[in-house]
Design brief:
The chain is 38% helix and 15% strand. It is of the alpha+beta class and 612 residues long. A hairpin with a 2-residue loop joins strand 8 and strand 9 (284-288). The longest helix is centred in the middle third of the chain and has 21 residues, at 318-338.
């Protein structure tokens, strides 16, 4: 191989202008675009478009398919979305995150000697949000019936050839799966054999889930026969899930298995349609969901980075990596202390956190020559003309950080928790609807709720139990945890410019930030931007497990030159490397000059797109 290297290099140098430089081709479409985490789920989006549906219909069909395929999520998880409505020119936020159930208090978990709620099992579950989110989006902004949109997912529940990734995840998690009787029945068809999970390509059937989906469709069809409107009929399905026989079985079986969810918790929960948060970067309006997600981190980071010449530093130069890393750390330090559910007191200081003046002050903390492993939250309250009510806690935290030895090493268990992924959904149509979704929750190994086939969420672990950790994110019944899930939309001149989302826990807004900068600062097309080598920081508290932190930890792509590695080590970083660092990001770029779509789907995993 080495003796052919010069010829390979010559071939690369001599590629003609416009030749493909990515491992996947750019997707082109004029009428619609559908991209998500699995090929079969992308096909569900395409089938829905072919039925005459709009981007919201197709996005809902893809969410339903990915949940049914356990694409690192289930029907009992949560769905977060941004939707661009071409008729109003507005971006809409969908908050379909479940809440802590009755009895879920810090004292309850502390009595079980837990520093945080558990990562798995019925005590990790917030109320299911995805069904409500899907049904609300479909009712309010879609055009097709629920029966039409759920048809692909129902076919998948009848049986589909399971992929190696999911089948092997079941096999790896089978010891935990056996702790929950309903999960064992669904996931382990070969119980007692050497391999108890399905094999890759085996037809995986989910009779209970199929029956649950049929109940939703039946509720819709019965309402239509009674003369109800399309929207009213879809909300009849919503009521059956959260107030009817499905809700009763979810509550009964969750409590049977040791969980806390009650029928009242399910009946009282509601989807919220919200106004998202926004900042402007070089004339581009970037929208994120609010502080119940980590989304504002990207906005804060962009505000900080406006104070630097990123393009002049060069893509993934040592100084570029260092500057972006430091800016992200400043924003994540604020996330770890100030973000939480805005429906509960205290009120988060988001006006101050997102102000340009605060960002400029934070930018001045960046040392161009060294990583600062002890960086902490700032004080945004003066930028709202207020005094910080938590100044004493901040001072105590700062002193504790100075005295705490830095952890070393980035081992596999740490990375597994930190990088824990889900899926993403991107859809757009010629009418102008654009949808960006990061659904999640109920990943394998999941505790299934009785005979519903619904895997329960594990999002409780993202709460804090002590106000000294984050006074805005302390567990309370009825409250939403601050989650990592963070779809993105960017507008230019009031029109969609880029729709992008990614899986990957606390790395999501890190990868999305770099994808955005790849397009805006370095002129990459959307496929180049989603495949490009990214880097990841671990200098923030993980939102999972025991919330570990690794200050100075930095993952680079394998191809990073030795001189950049050397310079970064000299700046104080602990380096490790990976051959896939691109997300996986899914994105749609809107070509206004030619009135077409450019779709990008990372080469990182099984993500896939279809355009027409």
């Amino acid at each position: 191989m080495p003796r052919f290297a010069p010829y390979l290099l010559l071939l690369l140098v001599c590629l003609p202008a416009g030749a493909q430089s990515t491992q996947k081709p750019v997707l082109h479409g004029r009428h619609w675009m559908a991209i998500t985490g699995k090929p079969l789920a992308a096909t569900a989006g395409a089938l829905t478009f072919q039925k005459g549906g709009n981007a919201v219909d197709a996005a809902c069909a893809m969410v339903a398919a990915t949940c049914t395929m356990w694409d690192v999520l289930s029907w009992g998880g949560e769905t977060q979305a941004l939707i661009y409505n071409p008729h109003t020119g507005k971006v809409i936020g969908i908050n379909a995150l479940g809440v802590a159930p009755t009895g879920a208090t810090p004292e309850f978990y502390q009595s079980k000697n837990m520093a945080f709620p558990p990562a798995y099992g019925p005590l990790a579950a917030v109320t299911p949000g995805t069904p409500g989110g899907l049904l609300t989006m479909l009712a309010e902004y879609g055009t097709l019936s629920l029966q039409e949109v759920l048809a692909p997912a129902m076919q998948l529940a009848d049986g589909y050839p399971i992929e190696a990734q999911t089948a092997n995840a079941i096999e790896r998690g089978k010891d935990q799966i056996k702790e929950w009787p309903y999960s064992k029945t669904v996931f382990l068809p070969h119980l007692g054999e050497e391999r108890e999970a399905p094999e890759a390509g085996e037809i995986f059937k989910q009779a209970d889930l199929r029956a649950t989906l049929q109940k939703l469709v039946d509720a819709e069809q019965q309402a239509l026969k009674k003369g109800k409107s399309r929207k009213e009929a879809i909300y009849a399905a919503y009521d059956r899930f959260y107030k009817g026989d499905i809700a009763k079985e979810i509550a009964r079986s969750t409590q049977e298995q040791g969980g806390l969810i009650t029928t009242k918790d399910l009946a009282n929960w509601q989807v919220k349609i919200e106004e998202p948060m926004m900042t402007t970067y070089k004339g581009i309006d970037v929208y994120k969901l609010s502080q119940w997600t980590q989304g504002p981190v990207l906005l804060q980071t962009l505000n900080i980075l406006e104070n630097f010449d990123l393009k002049g530093m060069g893509y993934n130069s040592a100084q570029y990596i260092h500057t972006v890393y430091q800016a992200m750390n400043l924003a994540f330090a604020d996330r770890d202390f100030y973000y939480g559910d805005p429906a509960f007191a205290p009120e988060e200081p988001m006006q101050g956190l997102l102000s340009k003046a605060y960002a400029k002050e934070r930018a001045q903390l960046i040392d161009p020559d060294r990583n600062d492993p002890k960086i902490g939250p700032g004080d945004p309250y003066p930028f709202e003309d207020k005094q910080n009510p938590y100044a004493d806690i901040l001072k105590e935290r700062g002193q504790a950080m100075l005295q705490t030895p830095l952890p070393s090493g980035i081992d596999a268990p740490f990375l597994d928790g930190f990088l824990r992924g889900t899926t993403s959904v991107e859809a757009a149509d010629a009418e102008g609807w654009v949808v960006s979704i990061t659904p999640s929750g109920g990943w394998i190994p999941a505790c299934i709720a009785g005979k519903t086939g619904v895997g329960l969420s594990q999002r409780m672990q993202s709460f804090d139990l002590d106000a000294k950790q984050n006074p805005f994110n302390v567990l309370e019944p009825g409250k939403r945890p601050r989650v990592t899930l963070t779809p993105s939309l960017a507008l230019k001149d009031g029109k969609p410019f880029l729709s992008f989302a990614v899986q990957g826990g606390d790395t999501q807004d890190q990868n999305l930030l770099q994808c955005f900068l790849n397009v805006v600062e370095f002129g990459m097309n959307v496929q180049e931007a989603v495949e490009a080598a990214n880097f990841n920081s671990y200098q923030m508290h993980s939102s999972f497990d025991d919330h570990p932190i690794k200050p100075g930890g930095l993952t680079l792509h394998d191809s990073t030159p030795f001189w950049i590695r050397k310079e970064l080590r000299e700046k104080g970083y602990q380096l490790d490397y990976d051959d896939r660092t691109s997300g996986p990001i899914n994105a749609i770029y809107f070509d206004r000059e030619h009135n077409s779509f450019w779709g990008g789907s990372s080469n990182h995993g099984e993500d896939y797109g279809i355009g027409w």
